[in-house]
Amino acid sequence: MKIPFDKINSFGKEFEYKSNLEPILLNGKLKKSGYHRVSIGGNLKGSIVVNCARCGVEINCNVDEDLKFTISDQFIETTDNLDIIEFIDGMIDIDYILNSEINSLKSSYNYCPKCENLDDDFEMEF
In the chain, where are the structural domains located? Predict the structure, then answer.
């Protein structure tokens, strides 16, 4: 789902978007927060399949995360706020945001119940 940057006003625009790849839903609100900025606040809810970082087994991970970002339609050079997504073409791509968050969750260190409580050092040679 793509939303034109110019269609977002200070009253906000609510949305609900379901991923095509995973059974996960993003509910949120887009709200104008400056001349070239839109704030997005929402909730990511559902489940994704991730691999255990230790043994590689696939596990089902329940997700219920609150999200807050700033979206801009121009390049922003700042070190104050690193939660900025730039859409230079003037279209806010909700699918891109959702898939980016899913991939971020998948790349985290996730552990299955068997490996979660192990305290010993883990090293494997290939």
Answer: 2-116
